[in-house]
Give the backbone structure.
Amino acid sequence: MDILSDNALMLQVKAGDLERMSMLFERHHRALLGFLFHLTQRREASEDMVQTVFYRMLKYRNSFTDGSNFTGWMYHIARNVLKDQKFGLDIKYHQIGAQEEKIAGGTLADERLEKKQSCQQLYDAMGMLNEGDREILMLNRMKELNYPEISEIMGISQGAARVRVSRAVEELKRIFVKKGIKKDS
Amino acid sequence: MIKCGKYKERLADWHMGRLDTAAATELEQHLNTCADCRDALAATGFVLDSINDLQDLEPSVHVKADFRAMLDDFKAAEKKKVSDSIWSWLLQPRLSLAYGAVVLLCIAGAYLLGHNNKQGQEVQELHAQVHELKQKMVLTMLDNPLASERIKAVSYTNDLKKVDNRVIDALLATLNNDPNVNVRLSTLEALAALGSHPEVRTGLIKSITTQDSPIIQLAIADVMLKLQEKRSVGSFRELLKQKGLDDEVKQKVKETITKLI
């Protein structure tokens, strides 16, 4: 095993080299923040939750085993942290414009505005999905997560995860049609 | 149209590159002939691309600093816990007995040396007592919550000229149950050195099917080869039946079986 792989680093953390967690933080905190933010629309709360996820990984490091997949384990914990938050995932999905000014990338003002609008449209549409569908779509967009990990994070079988992704996409397609969201709209 | 159902279910996976080659080819062939599914794929692609294009936001500047502070606090708290536990370990009542015994033995030793070799037998008794004490020390340390202490305990067994069944049992229990793979590995090495004991051999054979870490499985195969333990073949065959066995382990176990038969 590559000694700098995520799993190897986490096993070193487990064996007592806690400093190794900072490398894992460097690698994963952005994507984790993205996951939490897309599901909650709250920057500050999401940033706090990132800290909580890393704290829990330190605290419960002994539950990480040779056979675990680090990313899967991390998002599993992240889901639990989300569930523990008072607001859960039932927050309203339409305040993004007011709350989130800084969308990374996009240098031109027009381009940024366009991005923000299409982003807003998507958030609105996703607000009409149920919580589980939103979560699985957010996990599905991450390249490093495959069905074995997604199913582990969601606590369902791989077959069920496949079906659920496919159904969530279909549902979102229906919502897009209903709201008239089209390519280049 | 009905038969399109199974293809439509796969469109999202195809778009994300999550289909195996055979399934992907089959779907692509179908897409060539079915305009309806091609439209569906375009819509699926648009939905997934919109999601994939979501920008991950730039973390605020304090996020990194907050993490650093949290990690440092956590490390400090752990350090305190460890030093507390070392003190409580050193000060625990059963050890104070051991300290007492060591002092007594030293006095007795000095006394015996003073009286020269009048009592060879007593010197031997003294050896036996020191030995007993060392064994007790090993047994106590194997219960330590720190993995490094348990490894130390295991390595102490190398110094013991003779070990009794209590130590062997404790080592086997460590091999089978210790949560730390490094501790288990050291324990396996220590047990291999005790291969002349029949209990050790039987225990090792039993342990083959209970280990789940590939490193340990490989090491145990090596030990069995070294000990030329033919009775282990049955257990190795059992192990081969386990689902999800590491390929390298599988290969090694097969080789081991061939060499042992």
